[in-house]
Structure formats: structure tokens, C-alpha cells
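Morning!

This is the sequence you dropped in the shared folder:
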Amino acid sequence: MKLFLSAALAASIILPAQASAAAPTYTVNPSSKTYKGLMMNFSTYNFYTKHYYLIRSYLEQLEKTGGGTLILKKGTYSISNTLYVKYIVRSFECYA
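The structure's back. C-alpha cells below.
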């Protein structure tokens, strides 16, 4: 089953011990490319999985940097697989 997101979403991901105010913020939209083009050469990357890999690439980058904010601009995102958020989600907002 696919999950469709059709609103602007914001999720802030932080590590429990994170105190840095310089956490990165990334903003994407349905036509954005993955973080630095990563994952686009996977054999499973296609029209149906592109949004999954888009969001996954930025979530993995936030994990590497120790947290930050990922903003999904208004649009429809087709999520073909489960996305794992490995740290505490400080806020999750949806604007209709």
C-alpha cells in the first residue's frame, strides 16, 4: 500500500543530547532530486519509488549530521516503502 502525502510537512529530527543551534534545514518538493543525487542509480529507483528515495536520502543525511529539519513543500508524495526515522521527532506539522 502506498502512502500519499498532499500537504506541506515539516519534521524536526534531533538526537537526545543535541544542543547545537546550527542544525541543517533542507526543503524539498515533489520534483526535487535526492540529496546530492544519491540513490538515483539504484536499480529500484523509478517513477514509483522516486519520492521514497528523495525523502530517505535527506533523512539519512540528517542522521549523519546529528539532526536538523526536513521540510516537504506542498504537493503529492508517493511513498512506496517504509521510511524509518531513527531519532526523536521534535515536531511534525501539516499545513492544508
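Headline: The two ends are 23 Å apart (CA to CA).

More detail when I'm at my desk.
O.
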